[in-house]
Write the structure tokens for this entry.
Amino acid sequence: MPVPEHFDFFVDPNRCIGCQACVQACAECDTHKGRPMIHLEYVERSTSTQTVPVICMHCDSPTCAEVCPADAIKKTGDGVVQSARKPRCIACNNCVIACPFGVPKMQSDFELMMKCDMCYDRTSVGKRPMCATVCPSGALFYGTREQVEQLRPRSRPINTFQFGHQTITTKVNMMVPAGPGGTPGSSSAEYVDVTSAMHDESAAGGSGKRVRLNVLEDSLFQFESDAVEEPDDAATTT
């Protein structure tokens, strides 16, 4: 049974509270051998404890699968990019290097690339992914676009990302500020320009530079009133 076409995954960095509930829930999946396939990144570790959940974005044209010499990574007909298949994965790390979102991780003790497969055992039978089920703040939401737009009127989902001249569309949506007026259709941005959102800063003492992604930082806390919305539970009951 395929993942319902009208159900999407939404990541809202404004809502992540760093509780690690998603990480713990993911690790409890029977197929993960105790390894979480989601992790949290710090937006600016030196100055803030703000975190962002990182999951597989399930690209329409997954680079990880395209560079795999062993044909170990498959994308299902419903758009979910599966984790590497053990019988075929040769632990070459090509997928780890190629992913623009930095998602796949090589599990050296298993000699296997493992990543989020959107809880395919659950979503393919109408249930929500484990991480979205336990997230207390709604930073991870699984449901329809109409539901999320109703719940988050000051944000809008975007699933197109620009890396220089490369455009990547994904099955997973990133929630960004809606723009002036607060209505989903008021923002002119049709994609997240990842390259333009990065900038160099001189490191302390002028000994080097660091590159920082500020697109998420700019959006964080922009609409503080969003944070008081009730966590959603409008998706399919698990």
Notes: Helices lie at 21-27, 63-66, 94-98, 120-123, 130-134, 145-151, 215-219. Residues 21-27 form the longest helix (7 residues).
